[in-house]
Amino acid sequence: MSGSEEVVPDRTYTAFFYGTLMAPEVFFTVCYRSSTENISLLKSLHSFKPAILHGFCRRRVRHADYPGIFPDENHEVRGMCVTGLTDANMYHLDVFEGSEYERQTVKARLLSKVGDDKGRGNIEGEEVECEVYVFEDSSDLVDREWDFEEFRTQKMKKWTREDYRFEDSDHFASQDVDGDEKQAAVCESINLQALEAHPRHAVSNLEQNETENTEPG
């Protein structure tokens, strides 16, 4: 391969997120934790769209800030479909989710209109194939719905990079960018030492570790 030949991903993925990763701030911290690229460029690589996943139930994980889902034909889960995920992004997400979750391919429906917390007023649109992380041990789930607004307002700060803040964090669309800039952003590598040791706790303790200027353990 010549030095001037452009390297592009073989394929991209769409994922359905229903917990902490619904927040773009958390998603970009996980996938681009040590990136030096401008955040506006990173935002252009992905779109966040409200969606619903039928046949699953979401519950809080015991003693944790995040939820899990399990199959249940009588329930549905509202979340976000995120597009443009590369193999590298999926690797970082797999490591972040760890052994508590199994990645599965499912079909979700995008929401052209988002209703209330009970689902009243939802208008479903296009069906999309996507990846989702299903919780492995339902005995570790508490019989209580997980509250995204509670997480975002009270706990999200300790899960994110300080400079990853978005006013339009409910959803945003990808935009066209210069090919060279996009290639540089896609190929950006991040330090996985902390994530591999204990993925979720490493990210949630990111702010504390950076303040203390120590390596997360």
Question: How would you characterize the overall build of this protein?
Answer:
The chain has 217 residues and is an alpha+beta fold. Helix content is 26%, strand content 30%. The protein is built from 8 helices and 6 strands; from the N terminus they run E-H-H-E-E-H-E-E-E-H-H-H-H-H. The protein has helices spanning 24-31, 39-43, 87-97, 148-154, 179-186, 193-197, 199-204, 206-212; strands at 13-17, 48-61, 67-85, 101-113, 123-135, 141-142. Strands 1, 2, 3, 4, 5 and 6 form a 6-stranded antiparallel β-sheet that branches. The longest helix has 11 residues, at 87-97. Residues 168-178, 184-198 and 207-217 have low confidence and may be disordered.
Task: Summarize this structure briefly.
This protein has helices at 24-31, 39-43, 87-97, 148-154, 179-186, 193-197, 199-204, 206-212, and strands at residues 13-17, 48-61, 67-85, 101-113, 123-135, 141-142. It is α+β, with helices and mostly antiparallel strands. The protein is globular.
Instruction: Estimate the helix proportion, in percent.
Output: 25-40%
Number of helices: 8
- Main beta-sheet annotation: 6 strands, antiparallel
The unreliable regions are 168-178, 184-198, 207-217
| Mean of all residue-level pLDDT scores | 79
Keywords:
about 220 residues, alpha+beta, 6-stranded antiparallel sheet, about 25% helix, about 30% strand
